[in-house]
Amino acid sequence: DGGITQSPKYLFRKEGQNVTLSCEQNLNHDAMYWYRQDPGQGLRLIYYSQIVNDFQKGDIAEGYSVSREKKESFPLTVTSAQKNPTAFYLCASMTDGAEPNYGYTFGSGTRLTVV
Amino acid sequence: AQSVTQLDSHVSVSEGTPVLLRCNYSSSYSPSLFWYVQHPNKGLQLLLKYTSAATLVKGINGFEAEFKKSETSFHLTKPSAHMSDAAEYFCVVSAAGGTSYGKLTFGQGTILTVHP
């Protein structure tokens, strides 16, 4: 079955460490997105990529980095510059940009906790 | 620019009674609108979407929503709540043009509690 796989499901990070969250999709979708979810704040866009080798900052990109070397993969690195990284991270993908109303597919999320 | 306001952070209903989750939006472009549901520690599942066709949209699990352009609203309803409907619901708008193409803007979420 096609879908989005996020790993790991739970991740613990020490202060000052960089960590990378994985997002893989086999839907052949062009666009991929990373969102951060905090209680009572909905989801906020971190980065997005509409094609391979191109990505754009979202609303809260500071302290994060991404790459899009393959269509299927859009990993997110949470750097030590992100001061409050504890959150639930969701990856999403979408079909060709000509159909933005087609709907988005979300992964099951990664819960990151700073210890 | 686009934004979404979910008017209630929490809604509590009894099983078998109607559900109403309210959502207002603003968008500089012709919007696409969605409702998603999220169960604890899970990803988001699409309930329904408005795609500039019929203004009354039917989704999964008996939910429906009506797009009212004059009121800039997209409220979610269900005639009879089930215990399994207890979850958090998000109203979402997607820009249909400009540099924000395809970006989603989420409401703050409404937590639905269903009592036996």
Structural class of chain A: mainly beta
Shape of chain A: globular
Residue runs with pLDDT of under 50 for 5 or more positions of chain A: 97-101
Shape of chain B: globular
What is the succession of H and E elements of chain B? EEEEEEEEEEEE
Percent of residues in helices of chain A comes to: under 10%
Parts with pLDDT < 50 across at least 5 consecutive residues of chain B: none
Mean pLDDT of chain A: 89
The structure class of chain B reads mainly beta
Figure out the total of helices of chain A: 0
Radius of gyration of chain A: 13 Å
N/C terminus separation of chain A: 36 Å
The beta-strand count of chain A equals 11
Question: What pattern of helices and strands is seen along the backbone of chain A?
Answer: EEEEEEEEEEE
Helix content of chain B: under 10%
Briefly summarize what is shown.
The complex is a heterodimer of chains A (115) and B (116). By secondary structure, chain A is an all-beta fold.
Kindly describe this structure.
By secondary structure, chain A is mostly beta strands. Chain A has no helices and eleven strands. Chain A has strands at residues 4-7, 10-13, 19-25, 31-37, 43-51, 54-57, 64-66, 76-78, 87-94, 104-106, 110-114. The model of chain A is unreliable at 97-101 (pLDDT under 50). By secondary structure, chain B is an all-beta fold. Chain B is built from no helices and twelve strands. Chain B has strands at residues 2-6, 10-14, 19-21, 23-27, 32-38, 44-50, 56-58, 64-68, 73-78, 87-94, 104-106, 110-115. Chain B is globular. Chain B starts with a strand and ends with a strand. The interface between A and B is medium-sized, with 28 and 26 residues.
